[in-house]
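[audit] Reproducing an earlier prediction to check determinism. Same input, same settings, fresh worker. If the tokens differ from the archived copy the diff job will pick it up downstream; this log only records the rerun itself.
[audit] input (195 residues):
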Amino acid sequence: MKINPNNLQLTISAASVKQYPDTDIPEIALAGRSNVGKSSFINTLLNRKNFARTSSSPGKTQLLNFYNVDNKVHLVDVPGYGYARVSKKEREKFGKMIEEYLTTAPNLKAVLALVDLRHEPSEDDKLMYTFLKFYNIPVILVATKADKIPRGKWNKHVSVIKKALKFDSTDDFVIFSSFDKTGIDEAWTAIEQYV
């Protein structure tokens, strides 16, 4: 199925189950640390400059944003995790909202889990991956910011990430850069198999 990323709208920003869109459109969620480049990933994927707001201060997404792409898939941007400047109470609220969505959303088909290719996954990254595997939610692992590393060193960084996460080889792994659009076709191919 070919998805036209130019046919695009924000359906709703939801805080709880009651506000999830009442459709049967498949949903692919995006999860990652606050500064992993989630908004840039969405904008690159959808070929828009600033559809998802990027910001110099991470932690801006505080609701579940349902982006309707071509009436074929909802990309659901969930709040970034592991952001220090948000109070503990706020973090718990986000955590609960994310957990509720990931475990109860009837249309959720897979999760794009974003990690930074440059660094070993954080404890939060490991927790998220383990959580998704525990609930048998298919994972598309996306390693962002690939342009910041010489291509010859990618494999080394990929193996560090896979080892740290105890990566399941049945999951998709996409090396991505919003700067030079590396991995954009691979990301869409991975998404389309769940739609």
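[audit] rerun output stored. Observation attached for the diff report: Strands lie at 8-14, 27-32, 64-69, 73-77, 108-116, 139-144, 172-175.
[audit] end
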